[in-house]
Amino acid sequence: MAAKSVLSIVREVAPRLGIQRPNTATGSTDVQVQQLLSLLNEEGQELAARYDWEKLTKEKTFTTIAAEDQGLLVGGTILATTDGFDHILNDTIWDRTTEYALHSTAPQRWQADKATITVGPYSRFRIRQGHLYMLPAPTAGLTVAFEYKTENWVQNEAGDEFSTEFSDDTDLPLLDSRLLTLGLKWRWRAAKRLSYAEDFQAYELAVADSMTRDGVKQSASLNGPDYGGFEPYVVVPSGDWDQ
């Protein structure tokens, strides 16, 4: 389904709520339209925050330096403030140079490793005060990649600028326009202290359905892992095992 511009969404919802269709949404001086736009931005921000939508998932690579502190995760050399960083997706950080995964570590484990000499050869990572730390410190020049969730659910018409709210009539949502429309309806009625239970229920069912169909899900089996027809086995050499 093609994304609808903010003006298209507002013009679609307005008559259903007893409001005259506006010619502009972001530039309107009509209090009713301004409230619609405010609620639509609220809906988009809340919808973006509640799930790791594939449209809001991005990939980033960076080059390590020879230090535990790799610098600010956002605003340094890794991610720009305009990237709208929300959080790193679990188990997605990999060192592509040496081909091993970087696992996150709890503060307790981190301090234990710092106080001992039992740190293994492969780095673990943590985020503290906005900085990305790796222990043991990696060598310089390694390529590390990860996937992250962005808060930027709005793009301009050209598709080269992203933000967390609509600011122009031609702005487009990266999220499902239908969900935004349903969300705007119940939020408007709730704001006006009108009955919104049925609209809210329809909205929640639509969101749940979209979550199940979003992206590609990893298969799970109660029969154990699928090895593509090949079952691993252990070869035990012959011998007298009674001795």
Mean pLDDT: 91
- Low-pLDDT ranges: none
State the distance separating the first and last CA atoms: 71 Å
Structural class: alpha+beta
* Succession of helices and strands: HHEEEEEEHEEEEEEHH
Describe what this molecule looks like in 3D.
This protein has helices at residues 6-13, 31-49, 107-115, 177-191, 197-213; strands at residues 57-63, 69-72, 85-88, 94-95, 100-101, 103-104, 124-128, 131-135, 143-150, 154-155, 162-163, 172-173. It is an alpha+beta fold and 243 residues long. Strands 1, 3, 4, 5 and 9 form a 5-stranded antiparallel sheet that branches. It has a 4-stranded mixed sheet with strand order 2-8-7-6, with helices on one face.
Compose a concise summary of this entry.
With 243 residues, the chain is α+β, with helices and mostly antiparallel strands.
Produce the secondary structure layout:
Elements: H1 6-13, H2 31-49, E1 57-63, E2 69-72, E3 85-88, E4 94-95, E5 100-101, E6 103-104, H3 107-115, E7 124-128, E8 131-135, E9 143-150, E10 154-155, E11 162-163, E12 172-173, H4 177-191, H5 197-213
Parallel strand pairs: 6-7
Antiparallel strand pairs: 1-9, 2-8, 3-9, 4-5, 4-9, 7-8, 10-11, 10-12
Helix pairs in contact: 1-4, 2-4, 4-5
